[in-house]
């Protein structure tokens, strides 16, 4: 058999060609999911940018150590990440977290309210974030798959738009970058899992207000206050332009406050001379319009409570400005009288809005009072909580009527207002008595509950007699429903009390028959599984459930046997001295013994 001829070794060009034919490994990163998970789990759920920045630093340190991509010992040695460096997907994570760290540092400075020097530093961190985001997009286009490259491009466009939006130099370019981000996420939201589509939808909703803000700035149209308030939402993206919205709103209020010269309340007019007082009162009045607008029924209760808090803050600012003016007014009696009247009017409006806020809390508590415990294990309102809320309402109405009726002579509007809120106080007393009766009923006190239901009904009937000619039809309807509830509940309590009285002799005889001189034994559910006796107790009592005895009782157990070694004393052991090692003694030790 002939020997085959030796093959010549391949040339260098053939080796390079074979290497070029080797398939390129493409990395895959779900950029939006990675960013959202990192932000929500490490501080940004609560707007804590400092915690998120520290997490990015820790994450980078772990990535450097795992990749052995360190920067020298003792002296820092810069190592760039290029296309040839990226041999693992974790190198792309390093670039991503560098961008996130710079961005979170900039947002930390922004939310802290930076001065001129800190603003320069903040813009520098935004530029650093744009630099790392651009590098991340470039490396993903070379080393990542198509989806990763597209998401990285959207991420870089968002960072560029953020920088331009904050600089306020090129709003058109900022809007273009935000539109590019929206277009990418609109396309990505059409595919993938449901979770990914929801994330893309959330990202689009975050970018939309920024695009609207930029388009209004470019169009030169006036930014209306209600439109700006609609832009205020929660989340990391909204923190970017929250300060801008507040600045625009304050500028708009200052322009409108220039024409506001007096404050009207119950037919009286009070002049306003301080510009800060005007702005604060105007802010509160605009929030009141949003609260009492046409679409308030669709606004959730939590958002309404937030608007109430802003109204209280604005009126408190106005009161502080008025009292500062009072302190600096000196002995000018006419100025002091005007400021005292304005202070009293603002305090009255504050009390009026406090009553409205507490009535909202009552409506929320009532909706949970009749609700059964559902799958979400939502907390059910107890009658004691409603009693406490009505106590607050009664105190608020008393304070408000005392404030309005004090001092000067009252006009017709003030007298009408006082009479209206005295009747409302009577209605609040009836509601408080009703829920106090409910509290006694849940505790099994039938006589007290029956008496309180009857008393609540008498208060309700007297209030209805005084409201016969009242234009407030809603209050009259509520009082009618309350009177009917008091009547039906009083009948129920009366009947339940009679039934319990009829069962008293039977329970007494049963209890006497089970009396014994020995130790009383409680019946637990695990001890009587064969019988159909309840171990939960009655529904109207607060006795604990008897499911099992805990801690369990002691049981006698046999002890271990005691072993006595009786043979030890009878054994004769052999002599082993010959096996013991003898101690060698020297001459002196022998001499001295």
TrEMBL record:
Q: Provide one Gene Ontology cellular component.
A: nucleolus
Q: Does the keyword Thylakoid apply?
A: no
Q: Where in the cell is it found?
A: Cytoplasm; Endoplasmic reticulum; Nucleus, Nucleolus
Write down the InterPro entries for this protein, in alphabetical order. Answer: SRP68, SRP68-RBD, SRP68_N_sf
What's in the keyword line of the UniProt record? Cytoplasm, Endoplasmic reticulum, Nucleus, Ribonucleoprotein, RNA-binding, Signal recognition particle
- One annotated GO molecular function: signal recognition particle binding
Spell out the Gene3D superfamilies in the cross-references: Signal recognition particle, SRP68 subunit, RNA-binding domain
Q: Which family does it belong to?
A: Belongs to the SRP68 family.
Report the function annotation for this chain.
Answer: Component of the signal recognition particle (SRP) complex, a ribonucleoprotein complex that mediates the cotranslational targeting of secretory and membrane proteins to the endoplasmic reticulum (ER). The SRP complex interacts with the signal sequence in nascent secretory and membrane proteins and directs them to the membrane of the ER.
Query: What is the designated name of this protein?
Result: Signal recognition particle subunit SRP68
